[in-house]
Design brief:
The complex is a heterodimer of chains A (167) and B (120).
Chain A: E1 2-7, E2 12-16, H1 17-21, H2 24-32, H3 40-45, E3 47-50, H4 55-68, H5 91-98, H6 102-115, H7 118-132, H8 137-144, H9 152-161, H10 163-166
Parallel strand pairs in A: 1-3
Antiparallel strand pairs in A: 1-2
Chain B: H1 5-23, H2 28-50, H3 55-80, H4 90-98, H5 102-105, H6 113-119
Helix pairs in contact in B: 2-3
The chains are: A mainly alpha (167), B mainly alpha (120).
């Protein structure tokens, strides 16, 4: 059975029921609209509106879901000794995300968060963390397109406090 | 306190001259956009003529194409200049940071106040 998803720019995507269920948000909406796998009429007569996702981003989300529809649920490792939560990004996922420019990656992450697709969300957050790794503060600011609102005095104070990290 | 009228005259003359000069200042970005749009318009008109859309109709369609492209370019520019973290709630930013070691996170504190607060 298929489910119809409608994006913010009014594009309709017809996806397999299994793919639609990969999103917790879509699952909840289907339940609320009494749409079930065994009731074709309910699936045909309804469509799920997704006002926070654009057509371009939705196409990428579906591509990811198609690849991962048969995956077993992954267990996220808890904080390791160095204070981080590790997530292994598979080779296919690395390849899938490598050509997305940073702004597009942020949009995709926003969609994964809104749709509640944990695997995709973790893949992107790990990819962004890897991109930040090794960069200086001004390079990070440039990457995120943010203006530094810290004064020179504040920066000096922070540097003093975190000097141990730079050794 | 009043300033001598001659000084006022000099100032306004200087201002006038500055304003006249500023009319002649060429903004390279605007010039390059103008050139790009005129190239697109030329190509659109040529292509429209090939498929038989000429005269007033051709001009109108070319105008529509150009305005759509302009709108798209403006959107791309806005997207480029938007703080990308604004769309992210604190939880998302913290999830990204949690994937990094304490040492790796050190430069985040110097990036901006929000990152500093979320990181520590």
């Amino acid at each position: 059975p298929n489910v119809k998803l409608v994006t913010s720019d009014n594009e309709e995507f017809v996806v397999d029921f299994r793919i639609a269920k990969m999103s917790v948000t879509v699952s909840r909406l289907m339940e609320a609209m009494n749409m079930s796998e065994t009731d074709d009429a309910s699936l045909l007569s309804n469509s799920i509106p997704l006002p926070n996702v654009t057509k371009a981003v939705m196409a990428r989300v579906i591509e990811w879901c198609e690849k991962h529809k048969n995956d077993e649920p992954k267990e996220e490792k808890e904080n390791d000794k160095r204070g981080r939560t590790t997530h292994v990004v598979s080779d296919w996922d690395k390849e899938f995300l490598k050509n997305d420019e940073f702004g597009r990656l942020c949009q995709l992450m926003g969609a994964a968060n809104y749709l509640e697709i944990k695997g995709l969300f973790n893949d992107i957050s790990q990819t962004i963390a890897n991109m930040i790794h090794g960069k200086k503060s001004d390079e990070i600011a440039e990457m995120f397109n943010i203006h530094c609102d810290l004064t020179e005095a504040e920066k000096k104070e922070i540097r003093k406090k975190t000097a141990w990290c730079e050794d | 306190m009043f300033y001598p009228s001659s000084s006022h005259n000099v100032d306004s003359a200087a201002l006038e001259s500055e304003s006249l000069n500023s009319d002649h200042v060429i903004d390279p970005e605007m010039e390059s956009e103008k050139r790009l749009m005129s190239e697109i318009r030329e190509k659109a008109e040529k292509r429209l003529a090939e498929i038989g859309v000429t005269g007033v109709n051709g001009e109108a369609v070319a105008e529509i194409i150009c305005s759509l492209i302009k709108e798209h370019l403006r959107k791309v520019e806005t997207e480029r200049n938007t703080d990308r973290t604004l769309a992210f709630p604190d939880e998302i930013v913290m999830t990204i940071f949690s994937k990094m070691t304490t040492e790796e996170r050190a430069p985040l504190g110097l990036t901006c106040k929000r990152f500093r607060e979320l990181n520590f």
